[in-house]
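Same chain as my last thread, 455 residues:
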Amino acid sequence: MERHIETYLSDWFGDKARKPLILRGARQVGKTWLAKWLGARIGADLAAVNLERDPDLAACFTPNDPREVVALIEARLRLTITPGKTLLFLDEIQAAPQILAKLRWFAEELPSLAVMAAGSLLDFVLADPSFAMPVGRITYAHLEPMTFLEFLRAVGEARLCDAIAGCSLTRPIAPVLHDRLMELVRTYCLVGGMPAAVAAWVESRSLVRVEALHRDLLQTMRDDFARYKRGVNTAQVSKVWSALPRLVGRKFQPSAIDPDEKSLSLKNAFRMLTHARAATPVQRTAANGIPLGAEVDDRYQKVCLLDTGLYCTQSGIDAAITRATHELVFVNQGQLAEQLVGQELRALRPVNQEPTLFTWVRATKNSNAEVDYVFQVSERIVPIEVKAGAAGSLRSLHVMVQEKKLDLGVRISSEPAQMRTVTTALPIGEPRAFRLLSIPFYLISELPRWLASLT
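reply #2:
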């Protein structure tokens, strides 16, 4: 299965000025597989050190001299490590976090040796204020679940990927391909982007088998709760975890989970789940300028989970109904559509940037407004509204366009792509004309390209 990050990793290995690379991402998104793929792709020998399975190997990193470290690893693994020809892969490095600080010596004294590290719970180490990373001497790459485009290639629909890459407002997707792509979007929502689930679907085309695999993955993630942090209240984390599917696209409110629990405890549990990448907080931004993260209100966060497939299984969504309907709207009132868009937007960020999501909310008496997502392309701020069905009001988007004096808004739905000029229709304020770009769910990956082409 092809992953978009493969090009980035190949370029990293071929860069003579490369630094040790830390591959970050949730459990089971394919980090270990990518290290093996990279070794095979570039013809390098792979020296893999799993610090969770073989904790004694951490002792090899006691010296500060990287050549001594390499010699110890060679002796323990009974293999030869040759700078320029070997990829040293440190898996589950969160089991021995002190090694991260040692990577500076590889960057400074042995840059010819390609060193990659990964860990599914690594963000807990990085979030610890007492831990000092070797700033400027390592680089990060973030791995997400497989995107819709990656899913298309995996299921043998590479020509549809080419059609998506070549389409534009003046050269739209043909109606017959639109219908096929929307059918595949609904399938992707159910299968999701976890590589094991995609592989199971490719092999069996059985949603029953995929759902069983999802349940195994969800149980594995639940088993991780006890490993999050010393003294963590696993019962509270489990309670928040079970409640998150019904909060997708909504404000995280502890009282909606358990009104009898302390609010701070449940907020801490949610933060733990975000460190594990099981969920992503959709942060409230004032959107007065760029970067969007410069004006974030930490008191307001919405919920986006890791993966649509896991969300569907955890929510008990009926796969037969989902595939049969023409819209991504069910008893969950479009939450699946908002989860899908958030997941795809998260994957649009450069590989070496932290995946973040933003929303815009105005809470004023008799005039509340909430835009699902706010996206940044170059210096342009773009409000995005998600509509699971064909119809729906865009009042909140109109409010933001008028208040922030924007000239462009985006609507994502099941309808074919189109651009039209509209005027805000609000009872207050001066009406403002703006362009409304409407795109179907399968074109989210092309949003930066389309927006960049608009003057």
